[in-house]
Write a structure and sequence with these properties.
The complex is a heterodimer.
Chain A: E1 4-16, E2 19-30, E3 34-39, H1 45-52, E4 60-65, E5 68-69, H2 72-76, H3 78-87, E6 88-91, H4 95-98, H5 104-114, H6 119-132, H7 148-160, E7 166-170, H8 178-193, E8 197-201, H9 205-211, E9 214-218, E10 224-229, H10 230-234, H11 237-242, H12 248-254
Parallel strand pairs in A: 3-8, 3-9, 6-7, 7-8
Antiparallel strand pairs in A: 1-2, 1-4, 4-5, 9-10
Helix pairs in contact in A: 5-6, 5-7
Chain B: H1 2-25, H2 27-31, H3 35-38, H4 41-57, H5 61-77, H6 82-90, H7 93-101, E1 114-120, E2 123-128, H8 129-155, H9 158-164, H10 172-203, H11 209-240, H12 257-280
Helix pairs in contact in B: 1-10, 4-8, 4-12, 5-8, 6-8, 7-8, 10-11
The chains are: A alpha/beta, B mainly alpha.
Chain lengths: 257, 281
């Protein structure tokens, strides 16, 4: 078992008194792991990613990360906040909310600038990331001139430039064409080979096998109902169908070569 | 009739969206190669401000014509198509100004030496030399000012104009807010446009004025909720990348010899205009 990075104990979260989003979650995530969170809509995957990024805090239970319990108070400590934000990067599901600057260039460098990275270093990293993701020609464009695939790449670039140890991704390939999906998968593979931890919520079962070592399945009761290797989970079609993760007619073709 | 009501809102929305898209495509010129495009935006803005001030204080038509000539030369040096530039600057505002200054040419507004005399409703009237002079100077002043402003906007990307405001000590938070507002107006307009399309695809055109008002009212509410959710999510996205309430930006400006030359020429024109005013008096 790798060294624990996140330890969640009996974590529950409610958006209001009547809307329970997570229900008593116990989970340990180790350094360098590749984890996929799968489950039907509204089962708490995105909420968990928000908690892991300390954008919201548990209604009950505790989350420990980087040696501290994640609370509002801890995040108000400027030094810890900087350390945490430098170590954890979050790619949101909707790239439009992540790209809020007038140009792509400003969006990508927003993170390192806020984190106080040296400006010469930022320019060097920008060039490197633009060349790696083949987005140099988009740098001076406005985000609303981009396609969804380009926006997603820029959103990924805006997080990768921070060089975080942990990558949180919410539906990174949703709505993307196969080539852009492949590009994003390659980037994630590359990041994992550098020892980064990858935690990804997805409905796209085709990428789970390639991108995740461990899969946690969320159920309608807002809990993890099963955890296992990608192979164990993905080959149990009855379980996937019962939990609204696979449509019956899809399984007719899944084994065809 | 009701079709027109529904069509009016959709057409207005479409026009706003196309205006925004056009303003972005205008950036193509600003991103292109040319003299002003290559200048440091701070120097460019200061130079344009000096030329604008020269046009505002100039009291003679020769000086104003000389400034217009400078604008045309800058336009050509900046690879902006002259016909495109003139179409944008010669019509509308100068023509509207012409209507406004028209009464000033007559002796009952500007008394003076008559050039043409005539009788209007039994009252003797005339167009005066002084009236023509004042109207001409005002028109040239408007033409110079509009041309300079259009040239600046055409050769500078919007976000750079915003950035340059920092030179004038405008708080960074304010500049960032304007930039984000611009960015999300487009997104929200897109949502509204799609909502109208969705309504039309399900129920066709709105059948009555009352229904139309109800649909628009409901949409305003939905849009408010969506924009509220959006702003919360955007703030989360900013926090997630280390934002703590004080935005930091990368200052990428760099002045070269040509920027100093442009500023020097503008300063000379401004000073020359002031001297000319004194000499003429």
């Amino acid at each position: 078992m790798p060294e624990p990075l996140y330890t969640l104990k009996d974590v529950s979260f409610s958006y209001s008194e009547n809307i329970l989003a997570l229900n008593g979650l116990d989970l340990t995530i180790g350094k360098g792991e590749r984890i996929a969170l799968i489950g039907a809509n509204g089962t708490g995957k995105s909420t968990l990613l928000g908690l892991l990024d300390a954008l919201q805090f548990p209604s009950s239970g505790t989350i420990e990360a980087l040696g501290r319990t994640l609370t509002e108070r801890a995040m108000n400590d400027a030094a810890f906040q900087r350390q945490f934000r430098s170590a954890v990067g979050f790619v949101f599901q909707n790239p439009d909310i992540q790209l809020f600057c007038p140009t792509v260039r400003e969006d990508i460098i927003f993170g390192p600038l806020q984190l106080g990275v040296d400006k010469t270093e930022i320019v060097r990293k920008l060039d490197e990331i633009a060349s790696r993701l083949r987005i140099a020609h988009l740098l001076d464009r406005s985000p609303f001139q981009l396609s969804i695939g380009e926006k997603k790449k820029i959103a990924v670039a805006s997080v990768l430039i921070i060089a975080p140890d942990v990558l949180l991704l919410d539906e990174p390939t949703a709505g993307l064409d196969p080539r852009t999906t492949r590009d994003i998968m390659d980037v994630l593979d590359e990041e994992h080979s550098k020892g980064k931890t990858i935690i990804m919520a997805t409905h796209d079962l085709h990428i789970v096998e390639e991108i995740a070592d461990t899969v946690h399945v969320f159920g309608s009761d807002k809990k993890i109902i099963r955890s296992g290797t990608a192979e164990e989970i993905l080959t149990d079609h009855i379980f996937l169908q019962e939990n609204n993760l696979m449509h019956s007619h899809v399984s007719r073709y899944l084994h065809q070569k | 009739m009701q079709k027109k009501t529904s069509g009016f809102f959709e057409r207005t929305l479409e026009d706003i969206v196309s205006l925004l898209i056009e303003s972005v495509s205008r950036d193509e010129i600003a991103r292109g190669k040319g003299f002003l495009q290559g200048c440091d935006p701070r120097f460019k803005l200061m130079s344009v401000a000096l030329l604008l001030a020269s046009a505002l204080v100039s009291k003679n038509s020769e000086g104003l014509c000389a400034i217009y000539l400078v604008v045309i030369v800058l336009t050509l040096l900046s690879s902006v198509r002259l016909s495109f530039f003139l179409k944008r600057t010669l019509f509308f505002i100068p023509i509207f100004s012409l209507f406004i200054v028209f009464p000033a040419i007559f002796n009952f507004v500007t008394p003076g030496e008559p050039v043409v005399s005539f009788t209007l409703f039994g009252i003797g009237s005339s167009i005066t030399r002084q009236g023509l002079g004042s109207a001409g100077i005002l028109l040239l002043r408007v033409l110079d000012s509009v041309s300079l402003a259009v040239l600046l906007v055409l050769t500078t990307q919007q976000h750079i104009i915003l950035k340059v405001l920092r030179v004038f000590r405008v708080p960074q938070l304010f500049i960032m807010t304007i930039g984000m507002t611009w960015r999300y107006i487009y997104l929200l307009l897109d949502i509204v446009q799609n909502t109208f399309l969705a309504i039309r695809s399900r129920v066709g055109y709105v059948t009555s004025s009352k229904t139309g008002r109800r649909v628009i009212g409901a949409n305003l509410g939905t849009l408010w909720l969506k924009s509220w959710r959006l702003q919360n999510q955007v703030y989360d996205a900013m926090i997630s990348r280390g934002y703590t309430g004080e935005p930091r930006v990368l200052d990428e400006f760099g002045a070269h010899a040509v920027d100093f030359i442009l500023l020097a020429i503008s300063t000379i024109i401004f000073t020359g205009t002031l001297c000319l005013n004194r000499y003429i008096r």
